[in-house]
Amino acid sequence: MKKGNGQLRLEKQTVIFEAALKVFRQKGFHKARIADIAAQAGISYGLVYHYYRNKEGLFNAILNLWWEDLYRLMEETQRGKEDLYQRLRKIILYFLDTYQNNPDLIHIFINEISRSSSNLKPRLEYFKKFMVITEGIMADGQEAGCLRQDIEAHYLTYIFLGAMETFISVMVYGNQKIKNDQQKERITTSLLEVFLHGAQKSGQEGAKL
Amino acid sequence: MKKGNGQLRLEKQTVIFEAALKVFRQKGFHKARIADIAAQAGISYGLVYHYYRNKEGLFNAILNLWWEDLYRLMEETQRGKEDLYQRLRKIILYFLDTYQNNPDLIHIFINEISRSSSNLKPRLEYFKKFMVITEGIMADGQEAGCLRQDIEAHYLTYIFLGAMETFISVMVYGNQKIKNDQQKERITTSLLEVFLHGAQKSGQEGAKL
Amino acid sequence: MKKGNGQLRLEKQTVIFEAALKVFRQKGFHKARIADIAAQAGISYGLVYHYYRNKEGLFNAILNLWWEDLYRLMEETQRGKEDLYQRLRKIILYFLDTYQNNPDLIHIFINEISRSSSNLKPRLEYFKKFMVITEGIMADGQEAGCLRQDIEAHYLTYIFLGAMETFISVMVYGNQKIKNDQQKERITTSLLEVFLHGAQKSGQEGAKL
Amino acid sequence: MKKGNGQLRLEKQTVIFEAALKVFRQKGFHKARIADIAAQAGISYGLVYHYYRNKEGLFNAILNLWWEDLYRLMEETQRGKEDLYQRLRKIILYFLDTYQNNPDLIHIFINEISRSSSNLKPRLEYFKKFMVITEGIMADGQEAGCLRQDIEAHYLTYIFLGAMETFISVMVYGNQKIKNDQQKERITTSLLEVFLHGAQKSGQEGAKL
DNA sequence: TATGAATGAGGGTTCATTCAT
DNA sequence: CATGAATGAACCCTCATTCAT
């Protein structure tokens, strides 16, 4: 039985997509060549243009996957009735899970989205939206009396996201693997612990550092 | 009185350097053209090659300035007798001061860390060294009993640096100006407060979030 | 009937090759521009890079053709049972035939031997090998008692090849055509006569010159 | 006592000239940079243009030295009453002496004059003149009954000069030094022997090779 | 669908030459 | 005389994109 054309199209498109994921990660957007991606996908480079408008379009497809998944998570998080701790935990775990399951994707996020000035304008909006949602979570926490109110919600956001991003970055740059769930747990706990309770040794409250 | 040639040479080199700073910031390494930099400097593009070996060399000169200054600060910090709070405060203020005085430089630092012609290794090495020094400060803090020891020193480092970097990034991306010293103070305090004492509302210790 | 793609590819490659042959001959390696070659071939310059890695690669392809053909001849010559006279005659005729059929090629051989991007080593190696083979022929002649033994075989080689090469060079520089087989015969005979029997008027042996 | 300016000018010019000799030999005309020559001469590159019109002019000065010296020798040779053997011997020794005393010069002759297609037009004339003079010597020899007349005088010229040039070329390419006068003598004798008496083993006259 | 030949804009780099000092 | 800063023509090469087959 012959597969439907749509099915075939989808498959080939996926092959190209994943090849692009790999090549963009290895070389970065500018140095990645369509020919590299085609070779990785095992097709001719002309074919790429049947499935994607151009290099930019292919790259955007990857970005969309990233942001859509992230937004979906964020919306779920917002809709849910969970407390602040669980919500922040979910965000961290989302990044760590993606790091495990799709390291190319998060590599690209770190290198090409989070840290890249080229063609930044449109991408910045995505980033801002993500920050705004996170800020909402922080504000909720402040309203609920869980978070201190003497620090602006967006400051709390920067601190939280920045700390997390650096964890991921270090792993990405160091090509570290996440060995097991324990490690994921330790990272998550460390992040939340310090963010929520601080790095200061307990009992030192108010003492001179 | 005639200026020495060395003086003149230095001046022109500086003009090119600053033009490069601006153009690299605006366009990123890949999209920045030597011709752009020359135009910005008000010279012909050929002259750039009298002062710098090539585009890469010019870019590296910029990065070196950044890292050398940063290392100088870190060494001062290490040599000093100050307590943990003052040390971390100095690091943050260094970034904020640089942001005020040389926003292009810090922009490039934020955006172009992973950019390099072929091997980003050398630049990562710079970064790692910076992290190692910071980790030393954290370890000192743990030994001195100022910082909790149930979280690894390098985790503390990631959280601290990541949080700070994101503050800067947000300002960079948003083209925000630091209006006055008060704002610098507020940012510094917020960062240190959360890092050291946590974001959790005091009195909530142990309470359900 | 549709031609195979390989066939087409080969054809176009040949067109470029022959254009290069012509341009390299006219301008020499350094002054020959890829754009010239492309124009000569009636294609865009970018296409040259589909068939050859770069200018150097294209040039090497030409040299390889020359050397491979020459080596093929030399090996045939060595395998054959012919006497010295026939062997030397074959070598001369090979050069003269090539001059007739592919004057560009021999022009390049004559002019560009020492030309190379950085290291002329590889090309000299080719030349040396050619000389070594010829020297073998001379040594055979000495062993067989056909050639005088009071002069080293490689000296005989220099004299023979040098004389021949200059014949060709003069024709190349003077843009002389070989008009007919008689001329070829005369050149060959003159060379062999002088090389083998000397330029001295017979009967003058030992007389004062 | 202060030297006259003309004296100084001459000295500096000579320094540049000799630097050029060295650099042109090492890199060839195209790859030799004025900056290289100036550095070799220990002066600034702008100064080169005070003494020579441009790169081409500097190169021509070298060529002129070569050709003028060679012509001087040839004229002396022609004016003298020496026999053919002595004349040819003088030519060979001139090349070998120059190889000993000014290897850069003869290197350039071999690489840039004898074998070079670029800017060849004007240089070719020099070469032709040299050949014409040599041909005159050969014709004299034929008239005097010293050389066989069944071979055209210019053929004899090609054979003689070609053989000699290849000797020099091999030494140049192989970076061989002339160790002593004996070697010079052996080369000269071998060349003249083969050219005049032939390579064939004596007593084999007419025998099948 | 699929291929890869073909195009040409674009940019880095070199270096001879000029000229103000 | 001497310097070397300054200029810009020249040219190699890359690679995204198009399109005939």
Which features characterize this protein?
homotetramer, 209 residues, mainly alpha, Arc Repressor Mutant, subunit A, Tetracycline Repressor, domain 2, 2 domains, 9 helices, 76% helix, DNA-binding
Q: Biggest β-sheet of chain A, characterized?
A: none
List low-confidence stretches of chain A.
none
CATH superfamily of the largest domain in chain A: Tetracycline Repressor, domain 2
Provide the helix percentage of chain A: over 70%
Query: Mind telling me the CATH class of the largest domain in chain A?
Result: Mainly Alpha
Overall number of strands of chain A:
0
CATH topological fold name of the largest domain in chain A: Tetracycline Repressor, domain 2
| Overall pLDDT score of chain A | 89
Quaternary state reads homotetramer
What shape does the CA trace of chain A take? Answer: elongated
What structural class should be given to the helix and strand makeup of chain A? mainly alpha
Taken together, the total number of domains of chain A comes to 2
From the alpha carbons, calculate the radius of gyration of chain A and give it in angstroms: 20 Å
Could you give the distance between the termini of chain A? 74 Å
- CATH level-two architecture of the largest domain in chain A: Orthogonal Bundle
Q: In percent, how much strand structure appears in the residues of chain A?
A: under 5%
Quick one: which chains have the greatest interface? C-D, 59 and 57 residues
Q: Could you explain the architecture of this structure?
A:
Chain A has 209 residues and is mainly alpha-helical. The first copy, chain A, has two domains: 1-52, Homeodomain-like (Arc Repressor Mutant, subunit A, Orthogonal Bundle), CATH 1.10.10; 60-197, Tetracycline Repressor, domain 2 (Orthogonal Bundle). Chain A is built from nine helices and no strands. The first copy, chain A, has helices spanning 5-31, 34-41, 45-51, 55-79, 84-101, 103-114, 120-143, 153-173, 181-197. In chain A, helix 2 crosses helix 3 (45-51). The longest helix of chain A has 27 residues, at 5-31. The termini of chain A are far apart. The mean pLDDT of chain A is 89. The interface between A and B is large, with 56 and 59 residues. Chain B binds a DNA duplex (21 and 21 nucleotides) through residues 2, 5, 8-9, 12, 33-35, 43-47, 49-50, 54-55.
